[in-house]
Amino acid sequence: MTFEIARRNRIDQYTPAETAIREAVGAVEAAGCHPLLTDAVVLLGQAQSKVAEFVDMPKTTPYHKDDDVPDYVTSDLACANAAA
Fold first, then answer.
1. Which residues touch 75 (CB under 8 Å, ≥6 apart)?
2. What's the pTM value of the predicted model, to 2 decimals?
3. Which of 1, 48, 55, 67 is least surrounded by Cβ atoms within 10 Å, i.e. has the fewest?
4. What local confidence, expressed as pLDDT, does residue 77 receive?
């Protein structure tokens, strides 16, 4: 049986967006202890999950219809190209 860890669970395979969200979580956690900060960390976790879903979605979806669109979107220009 082959066991493979999902890409979204490997920091060495994070996209720049996932890395930025992870760093934001650390910054919020360092800000202190408060229910609002906890809510912010939860929301950031949800955002990171959504980015991972996008990165891992099949290339047959409309967002990946063009060959020049990278595996993950790193700029507004790439987003504009994907939507065209």
1. none
2. 0.68
3. 1
4. 47
CA proximity to 44, closest of 26, 67, 62: 26
- 64 in Cβ contact with 48 (< 8 Å): no
Q: Are 15 and 74 in contact (CB under 8 A)?
A: yes
Most confidently modeled range among 30-34, 71-75, 77-81: 30-34
Structure token pair of residue 33: 């202890």
The token pair at 11 is 């920091």
Largest CA distance in the chain: 46
Between CA 73 and CA 78 the distance in angstroms is 6
For tokens 């860890």, the residue is 5
Residues listed for the chain: 84
